[in-house]
Structure formats: structure tokens, C-alpha cells
Write a sequence for this structure.
């Protein structure tokens, strides 16, 4: 039974310089039609659905849907949502104000993740973010007042041109805000993004490692748990929806370009907005691309996802008889520990997680 | 097939530098004599191997028979024997020359004589061949026919007016070339009634027919079904087929004195047949064999290892197959601690090595790792033993070595006067001994004696780049000389890596060691732990660098929408790592084993390069 729902809300006012997601710039006139399509898709996907423990409204810029549409959407799915469910939304600072945040809370949203990215004006500019640092601070404060169970802030490091001083300034800012949860990603320069076209370069490994170590050390020192590669939470504020991904649980994704993984089949909705809307306006099945995950893939994904977490991964299923050799080798190198069928990375192992996965993938 | 008396036969070859138009001229001759229809005309018909065609070089000698009706109304039989143009294959040139009475000496009218042409011209003069000087590419705006024609005439001691001026590209002057072949090249004058003798000047392996010998019949005749005796090896074979190349293989049943053609032997490997040997008839053998060639010996050695250990057997099969057609390729099993099981292979030169490697990778789909090329050393031990050392690994410990001798070559470089300084500097850097310098045309011919080991790395590339491409090079072996040589070991994470060892001159050990560890630091990616790289001579560390440990290697983000992509990314990265060689605990990319190759430039120019 699927207990986790992702809803993709693709509309954006503009595309940020680093963004490679499925987003729709402009087209705001299509929001109502799109909402109808979402509700229709949700109606069609009832068969595998259990009572939902988490719902995640991601984007795009979900807050561009305005609170009343979010309320309508949540109303539609409410019968399938558990009382204790976590309902998250992503928010861009420039698209919400005090009133809007209250309305979202009233509509049932329990958790808000604010895309701050940085508090440094020139970094925001080079990321092509529309918000000003003051606006970011303001919105975080309003969100905290609005009564969400958890307020999270998204930040980036490794932005081209970022100095260590700027990183330290961002760390101070975010601590001063006292949010419940922080996602702090290293910027990836993906192909087909504006940053990539400008020939921007990520910082070298030593700079990035210094930054990453500083972030982890600083946030842990202030009572945050480094519970996932890029995520930090005060106790009890871990994102339950994301934890479902990292625990390799099934999830349903609805909306344009949304991905679902149910019973070892991963499917992806069309990434073209009009095509998506058209399919749901007719009796046609949605033209999805499907990938069936074989045992090896499933095993690799469990390693890949599970070892992102600080907790132990239950490796009882890991299968191949020789995988203990790999574990032994990695344990000897001080990168992981294992006992009683449980595997977890050491602190150093977490910083070089990919290298650990490469080793393990020899066996999975 | 019409019987042609010897007086109407002309056996000749073409001597030319790479790119001076040998193959184009050959094609043009085939076209004009009707051997090849226009519609079948593809460029460079004689270069049949793909690699030859691609690189614009000729590796194998071949003989093509065509008929030409001259202005005197008589039809002559031409046997055009193709010659390779690269220094690595100069031994093949001497084979071709021995099958001819004359040669076209083709020189680019805009570039003049090159070192390679010079060397082959001397070979032809020694072989008593009639030379027809030809200036090609006179259609080029940069052509200087008077200047270069005069120089060619002077070189071979003929009247400048006898130098033909042609353009193989446009066809201009080809008629005169054909007439000159008739008029100036003497016909063969073998004895048709004497016991049969034929010189084997080349051979190829054909998977259906076995070894095909290319021969020049000197005396007597050979028929299909004859029992042949190879005079040096004593081996007897049946001539299963007898014919000529026209240019396709055309059975004629008979080859007579003065003619060139092929004999199908049914032998299973070209190694079974010695090029330079003489065929005679078993039932009426000749008493004296024809003059052969000097034995071809590999001069450059390197280890070839499959990247994937499972490919070892395939590599052996591929080498066996290539050897069927290339008697100069030598190989024997070799085991490296670092690289596992592979083969130590011997080549005629760097180009030969490149070609073999490329063919193995391309035609046999193998992924290979090649170690630094080296030469064959003669080592005298303190116990008085003489050793041949073809791999640095086999060098005895220093205390057991009385002396080491290394092969030297005499290098001839032709270069415009403003390049003399650069060439001499390069030769000095490479432990060269100056011999002479002589002006030729408007250029200088510089002769140096150099250790072969110094030119088997990137000498030729350096020569070209330092003279902006204007220098040309030829070399020949010039014996062995004693040198103060030492083994330079490379240690990764404290363990010596046999495949990275090299033998160097004592005085260069420090510089090479330093450059090598620097190059390796730049090539080997960061690992999970810190990796010291050291260069050592006889246990003493002469240089050290450190590869820092990896500190951060994570996928920044991974959520429901991108799990597949991230998994595939990891799978790709893992595949990429497969291309690396696990040396002890260190993952080493292939390029690292080649960084030694480019050392010459980086060590001597470390100031100018990044």
C-alpha cells in the first residue's frame, strides 16, 4: 500500500540559474485547469493507495498556486490522508506573506520548506533568485509565527564566487533564525542550466570539503541532527516524506513529470504540461514512461538511499554471499560499521559516500 | 596470359617521403595503364589495410603487374613494387629494392628532399638501381621545381634536365614517367634456363590460402604444383597457386625469370617463411641462394596488458593472428605485479608499436594498457654473465651489475637553417653526440649519435614541434655503447610498481623521477586515503609527491524524482572506475602508465608548461 504522495506544482515566475526541474514559466492562466487535472489523476490512482502518512507539495513554486488552490487540492485528497500526516509545501520567499502563510496552515499544511538558498545579496543574484535577503528573513519569521509544526530552510553552498566568509555569514543567519530543519545542498551545475551555459565552475574539492565539514560541525554544535547527507533537523523535525524516499518505500507522484515507485515499477508522467492536461481531460491513459526495477537495481538503490541516513540500514536483504567482504574492507578503511545485519557509515564514510557505494555496487 | 620476354619487363619501385605523393603516383600509373578502371578508382589502391589508408602510410610491400604500350608501339610489362615510407619500416624498403632494377625517386616540388628519402636513395644507389628523379606537385603555388630539381639531380649525380616534373594529382607528366620507365630502367637479365631461384621479398597471411609469398623470380621459372624448397630454412612446400597482382590476385600458373608475383604456400604463419629467403625447385635446386636481407629485429619493447584480466586469452589469440602476417612482431608472456598477466612485445619502432596496439584495440576489440616503451639492454653481471634486458623489471640489482650497454642510433635530421639550434638543443638534451653537419639545398643535414632509448619516447614529436614541422628524421642502428644507467623505481603508497619502472641515465634520474612523480600526481585521482608517490634509485628516494585523500564525494540531493538518474550516475561512475587498474590499494588510470612517455617534454620544458 502506498502511504506517500508527491504532488508536482510546476509553475514559476522565472527559471533560476541553477534549476533543471520540470517547471512552467508564465502559463499562470493554466493553474485552475492544472488543479483539475491533478484531482482527476489522484482519483484515478486510488487502487494502490493506503491511508497517506505524508503529502509533499513540491515544484516549481507551489506557493504560486495561491493558498485557495492549495486548500482545494488538500480538500480533494483529505479523505485519504491520516490525521497525523505530515503535509509539506515548498515556498519561495517572494511569493508568500504573513496572510498567505496563515491560510496555508489553515488549509492543513503542517510543514513548510522555504527556499532561501542564501542570505547574501550577490549570491542570490548569481543564482537568479528573485528574493532579497530581508524578504527571506521576514518570511521565515512569519512562517514560524503561523504555527506550522516544522519550518525548514533550503540553502546552497559552492555557489560560483562564494567565499568562505559568505558561507560563515549564512551559517550565522540560519542559526539566528532558529528554524526546525535545514536542507543545505552543494550546488550542482547541471547541463542545460543557465549557470552551465555561462561556464560556471563548482569550487574545488578541498574548498567544498571545508565548507561541508564546517556546515555539519556548526549545525551539529547547535543541536541539529545530521540525519541525511544534506539535511539537518532538531529532534522530531525530520522530514517524514523524504525519509520515505530514503527508506525505499513506495510513493505515488502526481502532476506533470511526477515520478512514482510502486511495487518495483518506477513510472514518470509526461513532462509536457499540455500533454499532461490533455490526457487527464480525456479518457486516455496518461502516457507514462516505465522502468521495472530488477533485484540488482532495487538492492543498489537501497544502498544508495539508505546510506544517506545516519541511522543503520537493515542489510539483511542485501543477498550476495560475498558482500561481507566489501563490508569488511570498508570497515577496515574506517568508512562503515556493521553488526547484526545492520550497516551504517562512519562520519568520514558519510563524507565520501559515493566511493563507499562504488565499492558496494561491486556486490549489488 | 601472354609470355613476355625479359627485355620487355620493367621492375621498379617508388621512393618517396610521407605525403610526397607516392601512393597518388602509383594510383595514377595503375589508372593510366588500364589496370584499374576509373570507376574502381579509389584513393591509394595499394594501401589496402584500413590503417594504412587512414594514416596515409604504407606498411606492407606489394607488387602490382600492369601492361603499358609505349610510344614505340611495344607493350611492356611493369611490375610496380610498393615501398613503405616510414623509418620503422625501412627494412621493408630494402626488400623491395632488391626486387627491382630501378626506382622512381619522388620529391615534393615545394618541400624538397627529406631525410627519409635521402636514406632510401642511398639504399637504392648501393643496390645499383637506376633512379628516375621525379618532382611531384608542380601544380602547387609553393612549388620550386628549379631549386629542388637541381638538388635532386645533384644528389644522384644526373643532369638537372633529366628530372621529370609532374603532378600526380592532375595527371600532368605521367606519360613521361611511363616512357622514362621504359627507356631508362634496364630489363631484368636472369637466366631462364638456370636452376630456378626467386627472392621472397614479402609475405602475407590469407585466412583461406595460408601464407602468400611475394617473390621476384631471378632465374628459371615456377609453376603451379612445383615442389618449392626454401634454401635457408630447408622447408619444402607445394606452390598451390602461382600468379600476379593486377592489382587483384590473378592466377597465371607460371612465373618466369624477371617477373614478380606471388606463390601460395599453404603455410600457416608468415613466421614459417623467412622473408629474404630464396625459393628454388626441390627437384632441381640451385646451388647458391640469392643475397637476402639483414635480419629484422625488434628495437622497441613494451608490455601489453588487457585492462580486463579475462581478456588475456583473447589478447594472446589476437597477437597470434597478427604474427601470422607480421614476422617482425615478437611477443612473450609477461607477468606484472601491478598489471597482472600480459605480454612483452617487441616492435620495429614506435609507429609499429602504435599500429599494432591500434589494430588490437580496433580489430580485436581489446582494451589494452601499454607500458612505457624501452629498448634492449646488454648487461654484464659481476659474475661475468651476459644478459639481455628488455624490461626494467629484469635488470639485476645494482651491486650485481658490472656494466650496461645500450643501443645507439645514428640520427640524420634535415632542417631549415633557422631550426638548427632547436634540433641541436633537443639532441643534446637526449644525450646525443654530435657527428657532422652538412648543407643540403637550403637546409642543414645534422647527424647525431643518440641512445635509442632517448628517441623511443617522444623525440619525433618534439622534433616536429620545435621546428614547426620542418625537420625530418631518419635513423639507423649504430651499435651498443656502455652507459651509466640506473633503474628508476616508482613507489605508490610505499610499494614499487613494476610497470612504472624505467631505465635511465644516472645523471637524468633525479630530473626524470621528479617529473614522473609530478605527472603521476596530476593523473591519478584522489583516493580514499592519502597516497605518497615516490621515485627511487637503488632504494634511495629521489623525489616525492602526495595525492591527497578524498574528503568529499557525495550526491548532493536525492529525492523520489531522481532516484533512477542518481542510480545510473553511480553505475556509470563505477564503469568508469573499471577502466582503472587496481595497483595494490591504489586505483590508477591508464594514462598514468603513459605519462612516462611524455616525460621528455615535461621534464625539459617544465618552465614553459603549466
Amino acid at each position: 500500500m502506498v502511504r506517500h504522495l508527491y504532488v508536482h506544482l510546476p509553475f514559476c515566475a522565472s527559471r533560476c540559474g541553477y534549476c533543471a526541474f520540470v517547471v512552467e514559466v508564465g502559463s499562470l492562466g493554466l493553474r485552475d485547469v492544472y488543479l483539475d487535472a491533478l484531482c482527476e489523476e489522484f482519483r484515478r490512482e486510488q487502487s494502490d493507495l493506503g491511508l497517506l502518512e505524508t503529502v509533499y507539495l513540491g515544484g516549481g513554486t507551489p506557493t504560486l498556486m495561491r493558498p485557495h488552490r492549495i486548500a482545494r487540492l488538500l480538500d480533494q485528497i483529505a479523505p485519504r490522508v491520516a490525521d497525523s500526516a505530515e503535509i509539506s509545501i515548498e515556498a519561495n520567499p517572494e511569493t508568500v506573506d504573513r496572510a498567505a502563510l496563515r491560510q496555508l496552515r489553515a488549509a492543513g499544511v503542517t510543514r513548510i520548506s522555504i527556499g532561501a538558498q542564501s542570505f547574501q545579496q550577490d549570491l542570490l543574484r548569481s543564482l537568479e533568485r528573485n528574493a532579497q535577503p530581508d524578504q527571506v528573513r521576514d518570511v521565515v519569521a512569519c512562517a514560524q509565527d503561523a504555527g506550522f509544526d516544522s519550518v525548514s530552510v533550503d540553502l546552497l553552498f559552492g555557489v560560483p564566487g562564494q567565499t568562505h566568509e559568505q558561507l560563515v555569514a549564512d551559517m550565522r543567519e540560519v542559526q539566528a533564525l532558529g528554524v526546525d530543519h535545514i536542507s543545505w545542498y552543494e550546488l550542482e551545475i547541471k547541463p542545460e542550466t543557465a549557470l552551465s551555459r555561462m561556464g560556471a565552475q563548482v569550487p574545488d574539492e578541498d574548498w567544498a570539503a571545508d565548507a561541508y565539514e564546517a556546515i555539519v560541525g556548526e549545525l551539529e554544535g547547535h543541536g541539529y541532527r545530521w540525519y541525511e547527507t544534506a539535511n539537518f533537523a532538531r529532534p522530531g523535525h525530520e522530514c517524514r516524506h523524504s525519509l520515505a524516499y530514503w527508506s525505499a518505500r513506495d510513493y505515488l507522484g502526481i502532476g506533470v513529470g511526477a515520478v512514482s515507485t510502486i511495487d518495483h515499477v518506477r513510472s514518470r508522467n509526461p513532462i509536457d504540461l499540455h500533454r499532461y492536461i490533455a490526457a487527464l481531460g480525456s479518457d486516455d491513459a496518461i502516457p507514462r514512461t516505465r522502468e521495472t526495477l530488477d533485484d540488482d537495481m532495487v538492492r543498489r538503490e537501497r544502498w544508495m538511499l539508505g546510506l544517506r541516513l545516519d541511522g543503520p540500514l537493515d542489510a539483511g536483504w542485501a543477498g550476495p554471499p560475498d558482500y561481507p567482504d566489501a563490508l569488511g574492507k570498508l570497515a577496515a578503511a574506517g568508512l562503515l560499521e556493521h553488526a547484526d545485519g545492520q550497516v551504517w557509515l562512519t562520519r568520514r564514510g558519510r563524507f565520501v559516500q559515493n566511493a563507499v557505494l562504488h565499492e558496494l555496487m561491486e556486490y549489488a | 596470359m601472354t609470355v613476355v620476354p625479359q627485355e620487355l619487363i620493367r621492375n621498379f619501385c617508388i621512393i618517396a617521403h610521407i605525403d610526397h605523393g607516392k601512393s597518388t603516383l602509383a594510383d595514377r600509373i595503375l589508372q593510366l595503364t588500364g589496370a584499374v578502371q576509373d570507376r574502381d578508382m579509389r584513393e591509394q589502391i595499394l594501401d589496402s589495410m584500413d590503417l594504412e589508408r587512414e594514416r596515409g602510410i604504407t606498411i606492407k610491400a606489394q607488387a602490382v603487374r600492369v601492361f603499358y604500350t609505349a610510344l614505340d608501339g611495344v607493350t611492356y610489362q611493369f611490375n610496380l613494387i610498393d615501398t613503405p615510407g616510414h623509418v620503422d619500416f625501412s627494412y621493408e624498403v630494402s626488400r623491395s629494392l632488391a626486387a627491382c632494377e630501378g626506382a622512381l625517386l619522388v620529391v615534393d616540388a615545394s618541400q624538397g628532399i627529406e631525410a627519409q628519402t635521402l636514406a632510401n636513395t642511398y639504399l637504392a644507389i648501393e643496390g645499383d638501381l637506376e633512379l628516375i628523379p621525379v618532382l611531384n606537385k608542380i601544380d602547387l603555388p609553393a612549388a620550386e621545381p628549379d631549386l629542388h630539381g637541381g638538388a635532386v639531380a645533384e644528389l644522384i649525380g644526373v643532369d638537372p634536365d633529366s628530372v621529370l616534373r609532374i603532378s600526380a594529382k592532375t595527371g600532368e607528366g605521367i606519360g613521361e614517367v611511363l616512357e622514362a620507365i621504359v627507356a631508362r630502367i634496364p630489363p631484368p637479365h636472369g637466366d631462364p634456363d638456370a636452376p630456378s631461384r626467386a627472392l621472397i621479398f614479402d609475405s602475407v597471411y590469407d585466412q583461406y590460402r595460408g601464407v602468400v609469398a611475394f617473390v621476384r623470380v631471378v632465374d628459371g621459372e615456377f609453376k603451379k604444383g612445383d615442389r618449392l624448397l626454401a634454401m635457408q630454412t630447408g622447408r619444402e612446400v607445394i606452390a598451390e597457386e602461382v600468379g600476379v597482382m593486377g592489382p587483384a590476385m590473378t592466377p597465371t600458373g607460371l612465373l618466369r625469370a624477371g617477373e614478380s608475383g606471388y606463390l601460395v604456400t599453404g603455410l600457416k604463419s608468415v613466421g614459417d617463411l623467412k622473408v629474404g629467403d630464396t625459393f628454388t625447385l626441390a627437384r632441381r635446386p640451385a646451388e647458391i641462394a640469392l643475397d637476402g636481407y639483414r635480419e629484422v629485429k625488434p628495437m622497441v619493447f613494451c608490455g601489453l596488458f588487457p585492462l580486463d584480466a579475462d581478456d588475456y586469452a583473447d589478447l594472446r589469440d589476437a597477437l597470434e593472428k597478427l604474427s601470422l602476417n607480421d614476422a617482425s612482431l615478437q611477443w612473450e608472456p609477461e607477468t606484472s605485479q601491478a598489471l597482472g598477466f600480459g605480454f612483452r612485445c617487441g616492435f620495429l619502432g614506435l609507429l609499429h608499436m602504435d599500429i599494432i596496439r591500434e589494430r588490437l584495440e580496433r580489430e580485436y576489440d581489446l582494451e589494452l594498457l601499454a607500458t612505457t616503451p624501452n629498448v634492449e639492454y646488454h648487461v654484464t653481471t659481476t659474475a661475468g654473465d651476459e644478459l639481455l634486458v628488455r624490461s626494467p623489471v629484469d635488470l639485476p640489482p645494482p651491486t650485481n651489475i658490472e656494466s650496461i650497454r645500450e643501443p645507439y642510433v645514428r640520427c640524420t635530421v634535415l632542417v631549415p637553417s633557422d631550426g638548427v639550434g632547436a634540433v641541436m638543443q633537443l639532441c643534446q638534451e637526449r644525450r646525443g653526440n654530435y657527428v657532422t653537419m652538412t648543407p643540403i639545398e637550403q637546409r642543414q643535414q645534422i647527424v647525431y649519435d643518440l641512445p635509442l632509448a632517448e628517441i623511443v619516447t617522444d623525440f619525433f614529436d618534439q622534433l616536429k614541434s620545435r621546428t614547426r614541422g620542418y625537420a625530418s628524421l631518419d635513423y639507423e642502428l649504430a651499435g651498443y655503447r656502455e652507459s651509466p644507467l640506473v633503474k628508476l623505481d616508482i613507489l605508490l603508497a610505499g610499494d614499487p610498481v613494476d610497470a612504472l619502472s624505467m631505465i635511465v641515465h644516472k645523471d637524468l634520474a633525479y630530473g626524470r623521477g621528479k617529473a614522473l612523480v609530478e605527472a603521476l600526481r596530476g593523473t591519478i585521482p584522489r583516493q580514499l586515503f592519502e597516497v605518497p608517490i615516490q621515485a627511487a634509485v637503488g632504494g634511495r628516494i629521489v623525489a616525492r609527491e602526495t595525492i591527497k585523500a578524498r574528503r568529499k564525494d557525495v550526491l548532493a540531493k536525492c529525492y523520489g524524482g531522481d532516484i533512477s538518474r542518481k542510480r545510473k550516475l553511480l553505475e556509470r561512475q563505477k564503469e568508469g572506475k573499471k577502466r582503472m587498474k587496481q595497483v595494490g590499494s591504489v586505483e590508477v588510470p591508464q594514462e598514468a602508465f603513459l605519462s612516462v612517455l611524455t616525460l621528455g617534454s615535461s621534464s625539459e620544458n617544465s618552465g614553459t608548461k603549466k
Observations:
- Chain A has a mean pLDDT of 93.
